[in-house]
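QA checklist item 7 of 12: single-chain prediction sanity check.
[x] sequence parsed
[x] length recorded as 286
[x] structure emitted
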Amino acid sequence: MPTPLHYELTRNPDCGCRSTVTMLAFSPKGSYLAASNLDGILSICSTSSGEMLYEVHVSGGVSLLSILWTAHDEHQLLCGLGNGVVILVTIATYITVMGFHTHDNLPVECLSISGSTVVTGAKSEVSLWDHSGNWWVSRGTITPPPSIAMNSNSEVIMTSLHWAWTKYSDNTLLIAYLHHGIFFWDVREAKIAHFFHLKMLVGAMHISPDGNTLVVSNLDSGFDVYHLNNCTLDGSILHPCHGHKIPVAFIHGGFAILSGSSLGQVSIWDASSRTLLQVLKHEGNS
């Protein structure tokens, strides 16, 4: 019989969390944990010792909202700022920081990467960039989704970005919108491949490692699990979100689902049975 999944607290990393934390991101090999906050501070600590290794302060205290590690050798990461700028942080003998203006004074809340293509999301804007060289080159923007009767008066707000291999394209970008469902964008053909209309408000989404399953965090009842290629509902996890955009992600190779909450706890669910496996409690909201 397999050993039941169980987590124990091992350490509290010193990530300099002196303000509201906006994002946490492990490096590709798990050596580092990066944390950003509303005071414009990026902290990078060691996961083995918990020790703070690097700290980057954005001038003017502009909030840091998103983090994306870009290199498998764990020496580069991107951070989206509240003023429309994305910074590239390189870790070497010393830290170097380069800034790129991506959106016109809009908060860059989402970042995603596939090869040399980086996607940035800010409010209704979704832009594609080539970062294969020293400078970012624009590859265009994605037109916001059309409105229908039920959301015609609602603001277009992008909430999540993910890449997937789908039946439409081997390079499909999924864009989740708060009021306007999920777009499947064929990057190679630069066109809409599919539109997945959802009646609920979409706060976040994540795709399983095998690319077959999509989990959606809605702002009302919890999390919904879908078969990605035909967008049919496989089941739901009841976990009231109370109107908050709650993060959700597949872990352990897709066999479990990790979710935050507005109550200072993190929940781990079995992805197949959708039963609760464990609750990790800590101070503050998650």
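[x] summary fact logged: The chain has no helices and 24 strands.
[ ] second reviewer sign-off
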